[in-house]
Design brief:
Blueprint: H1 3-15, H2 17-21, H3 28-50, H4 56-86, H5 89-96, H6 99-110, H7 117-134, H8 141-164, H9 172-193, H10 204-229, H11 234-240, H12 243-254, H13 262-279
Helix pairs in contact: 1-10, 1-12, 3-4, 3-9, 3-10, 4-8, 4-9, 5-8, 5-12, 6-8, 7-13
Length: about 290
């Protein structure tokens, strides 16, 4: 299978996550826990079939940042799943895709990277787009809570991207597997101390949705995604990544029957356009 097709399939799969999360009658934390657990098993099976082993010598050098990024991934999922509960899948996804803008602002401070006039303009325009998505005239408290959760997830995803910049020796699917295991280690006691484990009470449709989320949307899609990256240029991968939010918006409106205003659509397009322009900027040599 060509790298471009692998990446496109992965992005389409990611874009449909909202449908299945809404069908799982568990807390967001428990969904995140079992997503990481199921996906870890799938990735380990994939590595066994491919006869690829993890180099534990290299792993030790990056273990702290791998663990911290894994924790951020776990709680990032929780906030994103909460966003799906309070607002539409399209608005949750567009709020979540503000993460690259956060990275754009933070990296010059942390890594002493030069920020250009173009990047400042991209940040301003993306922020205007976010304001349009939020739709300040809205009085729907539930919708605003969902947007807040989506932005919280964006902050944590930005943290994952930044932490990954410190990981030098573990790459690709190995990095993801260790991060998922770290997420499991932290989420398990968190769930036991809050909602508890309630998977035994799930109905068949919820079980099927949870398995699809873990196997297809995480294990399978991540394997496709990372196996495609080695054969794609950075700019090409950046462009293809925006299939995910576009699919999420289409699914939200056509299948879930959720409403989105013209103003919010324009705002979403502004966010995606200007973050994409920053991603494919030839001056951006280092990627998260």
């Amino acid at each position: 299978m060509k790298a471009e097709l692998k990446n496109i399939i992965a992005m389409i799969i990611f874009g449909t996550i909202g449908i299945f999360v809404r069908n799982i009658s568990l807390s967001s934390g428990e969904i995140a826990l079992f997503r990481a657990l199921i996906a870890s098993i799938i990735i380990m099976i994939y590595k066994f079939i491919k006869e690829k082993k993890i180099s534990f010598g290299e792993l030790k050098r990056d273990i702290l940042f791998l663990f911290l990024s894994g924790v951020a991934i776990g709680f990032n999922w929780i906030l994103l799943f909460e966003a799906y509960k309070y607002t539409t899948a399209s608005i949750a996804t567009l709020s979540y895709y503000f993460a690259p803008v956060i990275v754009m602002v933070v990296c010059p401070v942390l890594f002493k990277e030069r920020i250009t006039i173009k990047q400042i303009m991209y940040f301003i325009m993306a922020t205007i787009g976010l304001i349009m998505v939020i739709n300040v005239k809205s009085i729907d408290k539930s919708n605003n809570i969902g947007i807040a959760f989506g932005l919280g997830a964006a902050v944590l995803y930005a943290a994952v991207i930044i932490l990954n910049k410190f990981i030098k020796n573990v790459t690709g699917i190995d990095r993801t597997l260790i991060q998922f295991i770290a997420a499991i280690i932290v989420l398990l006691p968190y769930i036991l101390g809050t909602t508890g484990i309630n998977i035994g009470s799930l109905k068949p449709n919820s079980i099927i949705s949870l398995l699809i989320l873990g196997i297809i949307h995480t294990g399978f899609a991540y394997c496709l995604y990372f196996s495609s990256l080695k054969d794609l240029e950075g700019q090409e991968a950046a462009i293809l990544s925006y299939i995910d939010p576009l699919v999420a918006i289409i699914i939200s409106v056509t299948i879930l029957g959720e409403e989105i205003t013209l103003l919010q659509i324009i705002g979403g397009l502004i966010i995606l356009s200007f973050t994409l322009l920053n991603e494919i900027n030839p001056n951006n040599k280092e990627r998260g």
